[in-house]
Amino acid sequence: MLDLRYIREHADDVREGARKKRIPIELDKLLALDEESRKLTFRADEIRAEINRRSKEIGKLPPEERSKAGADVNRLKDELKGAEERLRALVDEIKPLHLSIPNVPSKLVPEGKDDTENVEVRREGAVPQFTFKPKDHVELGESLGILDIERGVKVAGTRNYFLKGDGALLERAVLNLAIDTMMARGFTLLSVPVLVRYPAMEGTAYFPGGEEQAYHCEKDDLFLAGTAEVPVTSFHSDEVLAESELPKKYVAWSYCFRREAGAAGKDTRGIYRIHQFQKVEQVIIAPADADLSERFHQEIVGNAEAVLRALELPYRIVEVCGGDLGLSQVRKYDIETWMPSRERYSETHSASMFFDYQARRLKLRYKDAKAGMKFCYTLNNTVIASPRILIPLLECHQQADGSVRIPKALQSYLGGRDVLKPA
RNA sequence: GGAGAGGUGGCAGAGCGGUCGAAUGCGACGCCUUGCUAAGGCGUUGAGCGGAUUACAUCUGCUCCGGGGGUUCAAAUCCCCCCCUCUCCGCCA
Fold first, then answer.
1. Rounded mean pLDDT of chain A?
2. Is A295 found in the same domain as A204?
């Protein structure tokens, strides 16, 4: 959510930003309604001031004169009631328009209509060249006896899976490597609730709009978060932090739940797109400073890269173009890791920068000694998400004999083993 | 699930229907005292939305004591509904 005053005073930037994001907005209507609402508010304030003034005088009157004076005030109150009713209607009309105004993308965001026009920033690591016919992760998982999709579907329905033995161990190893890397880099580990209330979903800008993607426990009116970003960014909601506490850097491991509504038939093979997965997520709550946010943005991308490098996986960094940016983002990098079976780089990480768009909704503020109350700036990025990351991990490190090499950094998490062999 | 208590400023915590945006304490900030530190003294300090001037500070109006409704000329204070939190008991990983 953008500040209405900002929208008023920077209408051209807002309009241009929405165009760049290919998001239709009704800015003129919003501005006209806002203007009307401000005028009406002013009028209502005047009436209220008069009522307050007279009420105070009545308090000083002898009791027998009070009822007559009160009658005059009641006439004013009738007038006020009318103004308030119109004002309420206006606010109801303004709110959805206001919420649908997208955050203004950075000047650095490239033009483009959708993800096909994202801009590659750079590539790291060599794409593996196989001298044999490589298997995909489903075949590898089965032959190694570590992945069981059939039983996952039997027990939990489509887009579900079991990891078994070394598969489960491998997943745990990857997650632990990610967590340890982040803690070494000064991030505080949080264990978080994933079943959250509406305001957390709304505050992080998943709602309204994303309701169809979230599992809803109706009996308790709670939602299963699709990412730890939701509880972590909400951690300090409704709080006023001291400037000296910032930035807050958190890393959290959590299960993530996504309904994948509307994705029927898409990415159905294997464990690329599933309903439940585990993710280590990094979140930074920063002071309101655009340059600083840019720096943190680079930092959280760098953190994810460190993990990918440790996993010895080839990847590329992509700058997401305007048309592929969400409502709330100022700028976003995706990291795409090479997946041999898909014969392309595919998204494994997403690093978003929001400025105060989330913080404003979450009432996440800090007190600046000089300028007073300010909304924080928030950022987040994946550190690692499993089992999606197991796809490149298994596929890239497979060997001719059907075994899979374990990268050095992972070995200590797997009892020192350097290879997984078929049964 | 049963019973009770409570939701007030950055935090803790008072609050008689009008003089309450709200005592007090802590914290923060400024100044002073002291060789440094520690400690002490004095003072300042809520937020949101408008308006004026046009500066970046000042002045001014309104709203806000969990949320919504009601009573009243006047509500933090009285009434109703909802939400949330805590305590005890029961059940339980």
1. 93
2. yes
Chain segment A181-232, per-residue pLDDT in tens: 999 999 999 999 999 999 899 899 998 888 999 999 888 888 999 999 999 9
- What is the extent of the structural domain holding A183? 115-420
pLDDT digits (tens, 9 = 90+) for A20-68: 999 999 999 999 999 999 999 999 999 998 998 888 888 777 767 777 7
Helices (H) and strands (E) in chain A, counts: 13, 18
Who touches strand B, with Cβ under 7 Å?
A 3-5, 38, 41-42, 44-46, 48-49, 51-56, 58-59, 66-67, 69-70, 73-74, 77, 239-240, 367, 369, 372-373
Claim to verify: residue A53 and residue A155 sit in the same structural domain: no
CB-facing half-sphere around the CA of A342: CA atoms within 13 A: 17
Q: Look at residues A322, A327, A356, A323 and name the one whose alpha carbon lies nearest to residue A100.
A: A327
Statement to judge: residues A215 and A323 lie in one domain: yes
Cβ–Cβ under 8 Å, residues A394 and A146: no
Q: Which of A66, A99, A132 is the last residue of a domain?
A: A99
Decide if A172 is inside a domain: yes
Do A357 and A227 have their domain in common?
yes
Q: Determine how many CB atoms are found less than 10 A away from the CB of residue A151.
A: 12
**Domain end position, chosen among A73, A99, A125:** A99
- Residue A385 exposure: Cα atoms within 13 Å on the Cβ side: 27
Active site residue A273: yes
Q: How far is the CA of A275 from the C1' of B9 (A)?
A: 44
What span, in angstroms and rounded, lies between the C-alpha atoms of A138 and A144?
Answer: 10
Dihedral sign computed on CA atoms, order A227, A229, A232, A236: negative
Q: Is A258 a catalytic residue?
A: yes
Radius of gyration (C-alpha) of chain A in whole angstroms: 27
- Any domain includes A110: no
Question: Is A21:A36 a contact under the CB 8 Å cutoff?
Answer: no
- Chain B positions with an atom below 7 A of a protein C-beta are 10-11, 18, 28-29, 46-51, 61-63, 72-74
Whether residue A35 is contained in a domain is answered as: yes
